Each structure stands twice: as structure tokens, then as C-alpha cells.
Amino acid sequence: MKFLNISSPHATRAGNTGNVMRRVILATIPGIIALTYFFGPGHLIQIALATCVALVCEAAVLKLRHKPILFNLMDYSAVLTAVLLALSLPPYAPFWVTIVATSFAIIVAKQLYGGLGQNPFNPAMIGFALVLVSFPVAMTTSWSAPSELLENGISFGQALELIFSSRETIDAYTMATPLDVYKHQVGIETANEILANPIFTDTSSPATATGWIWVNLAFLAGGLFMLFKGLFTWHIPVSLLGTMGLLSLFIGWDSDQYVPLSLHMLAGATMLGAFFIATDPVTASTTPLGKIIYGGGIGILIYVIRTWGSYPDAVAFAVLLMNFAAPFIDQYTQPRTYGHKTATRGLAKKD
Amino acid sequence: MSTKSLSEISKDGLWGNNPALVQLLGLCPLLAVTGTVVNALGLALATMLVLVGSNCAVSMVRNYVPDAVRLPAFVMIIASYVTCTELLMQAYTYELYTVLGIFIPLIVTNCVILGRAEAFAAKNPILPAVMDGFMMSLGFMVVLILLGALREIIGQGTLFSNMDLLFGQSAKDWQINIFNDYPNFLFAILPPGAFVGMGLLIAAKNIIDARIKANQDRQKTAAVSGSKRVRVTGKIS
């Protein structure tokens, strides 16, 4: 009897890029469902639009660079960038915001740096930060009010109209996000008065700021699925959420003066950022200790910018700032390799 | 002394050794004030005045200044020209002067000017030195205006707005509105947009250079192909 004799590594299945990307996209589905249920179909339209733009831009640049087009499109990296970007954008942002953000993310942040695996910054967050800085009005007035607060919710046709043509009725369907409201009221009113705002508690239905809680829980579930599947290790999300939690416990324990812990964790883009954006294998730190520092840095920056900065949410800026630091962190956190007494870190001599 | 002809000097200043695109000198004002065409043009004219004047003066004193103190002497010359320019702008284009603000006195520290004084004017007679100053600043001006136009179109959707700051009241209606109801694209007006725009301009120049080089290479090989065959193996006894 003859045994098949293959040397290591003993991979059980082909782990290609497309597989990983497809699984991450799969893991966003609970979040997308929650967003659509609570905030209307805006995100679905944004995802479709961003995906089309991303694929067209990617194909055009690949053609210019004389690279195989179909092969690179089929790794789903452009689709994933588009999906994450569309999930970060306000659901009823006008279509040109999405187009500008997506094309900048793909063309400048990804392809001009050399394509998949070469980009120092997370392309989706570059696109988001670009439009956040450039179009403050469109970006802050396009967050949907939870469907429950509207009389009959937002139909698909209305959503299309809001995004693509008339924005005259936009005020009827949008309101500030819970983080934004709390942040601007916190010096003026006490916590109980702020929480009496209909965005936090609506007596008729529980689905208001609870919408954001469910959305974040859904992204948490998707993130845990990816963790379970081994798409990333626990270090980044745990240290990110941990530092944020500790900071808001020690600094922001008084909910009359600071945004409370529950809102930090379960409002805005916290879970999306912690599990889907900060864990991007290309732009994050790669060593175990480095990942903890990287995640912790993002957590601190999110808390600092949310609390003392002028933007209500800060995931994009925090991730981009730590992307800058990731190569430096890696340099100084190299683990000890087998056969060496100590790790070679920083500028230490290689032995 | 002079080894370059005037046409070579012009070509160098405008294209081959362009201060903004190739030497990457004077990036601070280049990136800071090119939000609109009028700002870019104003700063470019001020720089031109200083560069031509300082090149001329440096070239005149080049044989009398000892090497050890040449840099302080050059900086004194440049600083006095900058002061003249600043006072002139204060007198004739006061609004533009207030818009450009600190970047006019900062022309003193513009590396293009000291760089040309040291690299060219200190080694050449007056006429080539003046020509070099003029052509270098013209090349700088072209890049400044291109970048200014790019950022103004993308950032505000207009072209030649506020030209009356420089050309008087009659220039007020030069403004061209390219898009109606344009939502300002703040990124292009802010400094990061200047960096991206500058990178794109340098890339465009590199593409054109590569095209020119490829064309020249093709012509060269075409000329060789018609010539005689040359024996390359074996020995002719």
C-alpha cells in the first residue's frame, strides 16, 4: 500500500484571497439586515451603487496598469471596500458623495499605491474621511431617522428619490445620530433630560436609539463569526473595545458630563470599526503585541476624538492615524523567533 | 565662463529642470497659496520679481564677494528684494497682499531663489543669470497657475474668481462658473488636496517625458537598421 507523502504545510483547503473576502462580506449581512430594518433601504442602494463604481474604477485602473482584469476583480477586494464604505456612509447621502468616496478609495488609496496588499491606508476609510472632510453638510444631514419614528417608514422609491434626485424633503426623513445628539446636549442638560429625547426613548416603540444598539449587536455577531472562522485573531478588537471601555469608565463615568459607556460601545460605527475595519490584514499591525498596541491606539483615539474633538464619530480618523503607525509598531514588536535568544527589534543588530 | 546657451537655459527652467516639478523647491508657498488662480499668480509674480532681481545682483557682485561670506551676502540681497516686493504689493494690490499674508515675506526662505543664486548666478555673467532667473520663475509660475486652476475648478467650481485683486475692477467679471450649484469640494482647497494635485502634475510630467524618450529611442533604432551589417563573430584573418 502506498501512502501519499506530502511535506508541510498541510493546508486543508485552498485559502485564496477571494475566499477570505467573500467570508468578510458574508459576515456583514446581519449588520446590513439590521440597518435596513431600522433605517430603511438607503444602505442597500448605497452598497449597490458603491459596488458598481468600485468595480468600474478597479477595472479601468487595472486596464491602464496592464494587469489581468478579471483575475483581480474576482478576488472581491474591491467589492469588500465598497461594502464597508457604503456601510459607513450615511444611508441617504446624495449619490455623488458615494461616487466620489468610492472612486477615490479605489483609484488613489488602493491602486495608485500598487493595488491589493500594497496600500498603507485602509481604502474604505480614506474614501470616507475624504467626503467627511469635504462635504460636511451632506454628510451630517443624511443620517436616517429610525423608521419607527416616521409615520410610514421610508419606501424604496422614496429612498431612491432622496439619493438620486430631489433632496427637498430630506429633512422629513433624517435626524442626527444618537452620538451627535448626546455630545451636543451633554454640557447643557443632564443625562435624564437628554435620554428623554425621542431619539433615545420613544414610548410607543422600543426601536429608536435601540436601532443603533441592534445594528452594533448585528455587526458584533458578524465579527464573532469571522473570529470563529479564524479570519483574524482576537487581539485588535479586544484591545480596541477594552481601551475604549476603560477610558469611558474612568473618564466618562459621570453620564451628566460625558457620553456614557453604553452609547460609546453600541452607537455609531464602533462594532463595524472594531471587527471589520481595524482588522484589515493589509493596513493593521501584524505581530501579536503590535496588534494589541494598534487596537489600543485606535480605541484611545476614538474616545479622545469623540469626547473632545469636533466630530461625533471618529472611527475613520482613528484607524487612519494608527495605519500611519502600524509599520513603526511592527518594527518594535517583533516576536522572538525560534533559535534566537532574544527578538530583534527596532534598529538592533541582526544576529 | 558660461557654458549654456540662452535657449538651453530657457528649456531647463521651463521643463527639464523645472523648479517645482523636478527640483521640488519652494513647495511651501506652492502648496499653501494655490487655492485659486489669482493667489497663485500673485505669488508667482512676486517670486519672479525677487528671483530676477536677486540673480542679477548676485551675478554682479560674484567676483567681489569672498566665498566664506557669500551666503550671508546672497541672503541680504534676496531679503532686500523681498522687502521691496512686499512694499510694492502693499501699495498697489493691498487686498491680495492681505490674502497672501505671511507667504510674501516667506519668499526669502524660498529655496528656489537661494538655490539659483548659489548654483547659477554666482558662476555666470549677468545676462545668462537674469535669463535663468526669469525662466526658472516662469516655470514656477506655470506650475503654480496650473495647480491653482486645478484646485479652484475642483474645489469651488469656478475659474479666475477674484481676479480684481490683481488687475483692478475691470477684471471682476472674468470669473467663469464651470458648474452651477457646485457643492464646494473642501478637500481640494485644503492642503492635502494640494499634495495630491502636485503628485498628479509630477506624474503627468513623467508620462510626457517617458513618451518623448520612447519616441527618440524609436527614431534612433530606425536610423541604425538601414546601415551595414557588422560582423560580430569569428575573426577576419
Give the structure's gist in a few sentences.
Helices cover 60% and strands 0% of the residues of chain A. With 351 residues, chain A is mainly alpha-helical. The longest helix of chain B has 35 residues, at 191-225.
Structural features, described:
Chain A is mainly α and 351 residues long. Chain A folds into two domains: 16-175, no CATH class; 176-330, no CATH class. Chain A has helices at residues 17-27, 29-39, 42-64, 69-73, 77-88, 95-111, 123-134, 136-140, 156-164, 170-173, 178-185, 191-195, 209-228, 235-250, 261-266, 270-277, 288-308, 315-332. In chain A, α1 packs parallel to α5. Chain A is globular. The model of chain A is unreliable at 203-208 (pLDDT under 50). With 237 residues, chain B is mostly helical. Chain B has one domain. Helices cover 65% and strands 2% of the residues of chain B. Chain B is built from ten helices and two strands; from the N terminus they run αααααααβαβαα. A two-stranded antiparallel sheet of chain B has the order 1-2. The longest helix of chain B has 35 residues, at 191-225. Chain B is flat, with a radius of gyration of 22 Å. In chain B, 34% of the residues are buried. Classes of the chains: A mainly alpha (351), B mainly alpha (237).
